[in-house]
Amino acid sequence: MSAAAAKYANLPDIDTAPDVYESEDPAPVPLTTTHGEEPPTRKNANGNDNTDELDTREGPTQDAAREKFRKAERRAERMRTMFEGEGGYDGDGRKMSVGMRLKALQAELSALEADAAVGQEDDGDAGELIRGLVDVRSRLSALRRGRGSLVAKLTNDVDGQVESSSPAPGPSTPASTDAKTGLVGIDERVAQLERVVGSSTASLDELTPLPPPLVPLITRLNAQLTLLAQPRHIDSISRRLKLLLSDLDRSAHTHGRKGAVASEPTHQQLLPVLDRLAASVPQIPHILTRLKTLSALHASAADFEQSLRTLEEDQKRSHSALAELDSALKHVETSLEENREVVKTNVEGLESRINALFARLESI
């Protein structure tokens, strides 16, 4: 190092002073422990690490440990229920219904009552805790009673209907009487609305014993009324009705004239036929029975008629062929007779010429 310093000592602009901005690295700071790391080991009073020493403290008993773990489980269940129901959302981020939130509150209330009954809550006044529990339970009961719907009240079970039809002797409360009167009034109003709309007279099948819902039916009727109430639709409907009425009037007049003209001759033609059939009315059933029995014979007769017609046609064709052959034979006979006459004439001429030739030869 001294040789290098001596080598570059005479060179200008060489800074050999230490840098003021350089500093030593800070000492490492231990990180905080997480859930997955073990806590740092404790030291005893002498400052020595006691990881290798035995823990001479007395452990909890079995009952105390069981009670401690049971309390921890209840607290974890209560916290889980509270976190699930907080904000009205479940663990998946979906909106919880009112019934689910009510069940969560009831479960939390049951856990609080169990803890209060065991006596594990050491802090706070016991009377104040009991009063708070009673208040919460009364509010939950009121909420649960308020959620009763009209359908559940109208569709009671059979036992409730029997009891209501045959009440026990005793004074009835005004509240129950008012409730029944209100339900009866609502039922009558709904029935009247169904009769007006027409859903009570609609055709029902075995799968849907209840009448169709009123809201979609009323919505459809409202849409139809809105469509029909437009002026252009009313004008088009009136024009079509006028045309239809005029066509109906013309057709009625035409049928009336035709019926008046053709009714009298038809009646006059039917009266003699009816007079002739009146004497044969008792025999008509026997005739029909006989005709039914002869239906096979009639079918055979129809087949025989068809066969006979075929034979007649074949016979006609044969006669025509024989006539043609007869005419041809006659033509051949006449031709042969003519040829015989011609040959005879030729032979006679030849004989005369031969005789003349012999005479000339004899003369020579």
Automatic annotation (TrEMBL):
Keywords: Cytoplasm
Organism per entry: Cylindrobasidium torrendii FP15055 ss-10
InterPro entries: Dynamitin
Region (Disordered): 1-94, 156-181
Record's compositionally biased regions (Basic and acidic residues): 54-67, 74-83
Name of protein: Dynactin subunit 2
Keyword Cytoplasm in annotation: yes
Keyword Cell cycle: no
Location(s) in or outside the cell: Cytoplasm
Main localization, broad class: cytoplasm
GO CC annotations on file: cytoplasm; dynactin complex
GO biological process terms, semicolon-separated: microtubule-based process
Top-level taxon: Eukaryota
Segments forming a coiled coil: none
